[in-house]
Design goal:
- Helices cover 44% and strands 27% of the residues.
- By secondary structure, it is of the alpha+beta class.
- It folds into 5 domains: 30 residues; 150 residues, Efflux pump adaptor protein, beta barrel domain (Elongation Factor Tu (Ef-tu), domain 3), CATH 2.40.30.170; 65 residues, Beta Barrel (OB fold (Dihydrolipoamide Acetyltransferase, E2P)), CATH 2.40.50.100; 47 residues; 182 residues, no CATH class.
- Helix 2 packs antiparallel against helix 7, helix 3 packs parallel to helix 5 and helix 5 runs antiparallel to helix 6.
- The two termini are 38 Å apart.
Length: 519
């Protein structure tokens, strides 16, 4: 059974080929005048179109979200409302960032004022004030030096009184060359030390008195202070040993208790006076050093003000101004980010929040489509895309209004990358309506005829009259004889009305067969 069906198919194919061969023979050898239809080569216009379908979409469609989260404080547009480009849609609470902005602006003014002051330089009044500070510091230093000189001199007097008056009361021969105590000391070495130190202190007092005769406020007071402290320390050591000797002394036939008590009281007073003198000299020295430091600082400040600001100081202050200005810009940006604005003019199609709600960052809460300008998106197969270019005009009908309502459009964009649809490469092409029309709605189906090319005042013949043999084209020409002439031609643009452009091979007015083989 299968073999029979196969043989039948082969037989049918052979018969069909034979019929076509015979028909072709008679066709190419027929006469034009035997009742075959002829047409005249004429001049006309040839138009080429690509017909596709597409979908109407808004020319702009945006989804909006806040960059940072926050609490909604104001809502300006609801769903269905119109928004213009730049219009505020929703606002978050901005009290905190606005306070930061105000602080940054105040800081910027401060830094700018400081820079202006550096650039302007020191005023004469400020120099006068600084000079006054220097003068006052000099006065304080002079007074402190006088006080130090006085304390040094007083320390000598105190030391002289402690030794020559109070201590010498229990010496038989207090002065040089051989001081001797009026009482016996059980510790013989202590007695020797006391008597030797008394002799040494006498020499010290003599030399010290001579030294102080030349002291003034302009002297090197540091040396005089060191001398005073050293001499007072020497006297203090002597008095300490004398006090030890007196503490071991008992009343007897040679000395009464009253005398001993008088000696002890004198030594106690002398020791106290020496200690006070040491402290007084140290305090006066410290005051003098502090006064000297204060004068140096005041003089440095005066010198800086007289010299004016350096380039480095001005540059550093300019950098602080720039930083303060950047802080202002930063907080201004943060304030701006609390307001969600529409980037386009259009209709609000979504608004998902209420006043008081907390919205999260990067969560879409508003959607807008352009209200007037609509586009058409169409996927055009690769076989037709080469015919289309940006700027081509098109006629569009919408299924919603039928074929009688025609809208004008224009090709505005062709995607360079392909989109594969059911295995076929297509290219997304965008057309824009030439005029705004309230009847056009997003999502409508569009039928598009794109005018891709046009030839005006060219030779045209019906496409059905052209015979194709491989890559060559022919027509059958009426040459006035019983047999038609088979002539090679060169064709151009194929028109949507069934005509084709003749580039060469025919002349205007010639007649050809209208029953060619068209491929």
């Amino acid at each position: 059974m299968k073999s029979f069906i196969k043989k039948r198919k082969i037989l049918i194919t052979v018969v069909a080929v034979a019929v076509l061969a015979v028909s072709g023979y008679f066709y190419f050898n027929r006469q034009i005048g035997s009742g075959i239809e002829t047409v005249e080569v004429r001049r006309g216009n040839v138009f080429q179109e690509v017909s596709v379908t597409g979908s109407v979409k808004p020319s702009e469609n945006v989804d909006l979200a806040f960059e940072s989260g926050g609490r909604v404080s104001k809502i300006y547009v609801e769903v269905g409302g119109m928004a213009v480009s730049g219009q505020a849609l929703i606002q978050l609470d901005d009290s905190e960032v606005y306070a930061n902005l105000a602080g940054a602006k105040a800081n910027l003014k401060t830094k700018e004022a400081e820079l202006d002051e550096l650039i302007r330089g020191t005023r004469e009044e400020e120099i006068t004030i600084s000079q006054t500070k220097v003068n006052n510091a000099q006065t304080v230093l002079d007074e402190s030096k006088k006080a130090l000189v006085e304390k040094i001199k007083n320390s000598y007097t105190t030391c002289d009184d402690a030794i020559r008056n109070k201590a010498d009361s229990f010496f038989r021969t207090p002065a040089i060359p051989a001081p001797q105590l009026n009482f016996s000391v059980s510790d013989s070495q202590l007695k020797i030390d006391i008597e030797n130190q008394r002799m040494a202190i006498e020499e010290t007092l003599i030399f010290w008195s001579s030294s102080l005769a030349e002291i003034t406020v302009d002297s090197n007071l540091t040396l005089y202070v060191a001398e005073a402290k050293n001499n007072l320390s020497q006297a203090g050591s002597f008095l300490d040993k004398a006090n030890s000797a007196l503490n071991g002394l008992s009343a007897g036939a040679s000395v009464s208790q009253t005398t001993i008590d008088g000696w002890k009281a004198g030594i106690s007073t002398a020791r106290t006076n020496i200690s006070v003198a040491i402290d007084s000299v140290s305090t006066a020295e410290t005051n003098s050093k502090n006064a000297q430091s204060a004068l140096s600082l005041a003089q440095q400040e005066l010198n800086l003000e007289i010299a004016g600001s350096t380039v480095e100081e001005i540059n550093a202050q300019e950098a602080q101004v720039e930083k303060a200005r950047a802080d202002v810009l930063n907080y201004q940006v943060q304030v701006d980010k609390t307001i969600l604005r529409s980037p386009i003019s259009g209709i609000v199609t979504k608004q998902d929040t209420k006043i008081g709600e907390i919205v999260s960052a990067n969560t879409i809460i508003v959607s807008i489509i352009s209200g007037n300008q609509f586009e058409i998106e169409s996927k055009i197969p690769e076989a037709d895309i080469a015919k289309i270019k940006i700027g081509d005009l098109a006629k569009v009908t919408l299924d919603a209004y039928g074929e009688d309502v025609i809208f004008d459009a224009k090709v505005v964009k062709i995607d360079p990358a392909e989109t594969i649809i059911e295995g076929v490469a297509t290219y997304k092409t965008t057309l824009q309506f030439e005029k705004n029309d309230d009847r056009i709605k997003s999502g409508m189906t569009a039928n598009i005829d794109i005018s891709t090319n046009k030839r005006e005042n060219v030779l045209v013949v019906p496409q059905r009259a052209v015979i194709s043999e491989g890559t060559e084209k022919f027509v059958m020409v009426d040459n006035g004889t019983p047999n038609s002439e088979k002539r090679k031609i060169e064709t151009g643009l194929r028109g949507i009305d069934g005509n084709i452009e003749i580039i060469s091979g025919l002349n205007e007015g010639e007649k050809i067969s209208a029953l060619g083989i068209v491929q």
